[in-house]
Amino acid sequence: MSHTPLQHHIPGPVGNLSVLEQGNPQGPVIVMSHSILSSGMMWAQQAELLAACGWRVLRADIRGHGGSEAGPAPYVMDDLVADTIAILDALHIERAHYVGLSLGAMSGFGLGVRHPERVLSLLLCDGRADMPEAAGAMWNERIDAARAHGCAVLAVPTTERWFGKAFLDAHPDTAQRFQDTVGATQVEGFVGCAQAIQTLNYLPQAASIQAPTTLLTGANDGVFPQVMGALCQVIPNAKLEIIADAGHLPNIDQPTAFNAALMRHFFNTPAWSQP
Q1: How many CB atoms lie within 10 A of CB 146?
Q2: Cβ-contact 38, 47 below 8 angstroms
Q3: What are phi and psi of 82, to 5 degrees?
Q4: What domains can be seen in the chain, in order of their start residue?
Q5: In the predicted structure, residue 15 carries a pLDDT above the cut 50
Q6: Of 91, 96, 230, 250, which one's alpha carbon is 20 to 30 angstroms from that of 219?
Q7: How many other CB atoms sit within 10 Å of the CB of residue 88?
């Protein structure tokens, strides 16, 4: 068994999708999906942890992010769901566990709604299943800025929203890594994904999600503790965990607490605990 990631370039509906695979090739599969303006790099620590426990871990770059090709905007969230299905099909994976954060969580709700037969479980962090008009309108300014100046113009304001300036000042290497990743995001990919967020509307079908679901949120991440708390009442097999002193990416700013929640999700179910 090797924990060194294996690079895949998988044909998706509109272009090649970059996927890093590590862990036990015969283990149960976990697909990990990231936030907008990030990439699979944000899951490096968690992927290593899960691989060491015997899982087969796939870190997928969302279209237009990391090493994945963009395809022309606009997108809808079902397009991103279709990319995940394309990865599973190409690797001959019938069913998988899914871990998603922010945009990855939004797409995860769609995966649970549209393709329940492909989902073993969901762990969804700091995402929502719908997009109120006022919240969606906030993306217009960011779309305009990226189109005019490239995604690098979003690097500092985005990372400050995610982590807070004090955290970035205290962790300059993390700040640089994420700001570089934001800046490297393809404009077409960012715009298309932002438009998918603006039209997000899985909430009416969320009660149909049958997979065991853990909803995680950073306690300091704006409205998300309330939003995900409400979703926990809608999804039949869901449980909610709030991570103290965490922002939008708790796997980065509170990794010990996040990893503990991750382990609870996977190892509190006996059938999953023997990869």
Answers
A1: 23
A2: no
A3: -60, -35
A4: 2-272 (3.40.50.1820)
A5: yes
A6: 96
A7: 22
Encoded tokens for 163: 């982590």
Tokens of 248: 């939008």
Question: Residue 199 — φ and ψ, nearest 5°?
Answer: -105, 15
Tokens representing 200? 């997000």
- Model pLDDT for residues 169-217, shown as the tens digit of each residue: 999 999 999 999 999 999 999 999 999 999 999 999 999 999 999 999 9
Sheet harboring 238-243: ordered strands across?
A: 2-11, 16-23, 56-60, 29-33, 96-101, 119-125, 213-218, 238-243
| Matching residue, tokens 């304001």 | 157
Please say whether the beta carbons of 50 and 21 come within 8 A: no
Residue 130 DSSP class: B
Q: Which residue has the tokens 């690797």?
A: 91
203 CB-side CA count, 13 A: 14
> Whole-model pTM?
0.97
Token reading at 266: 């996977």
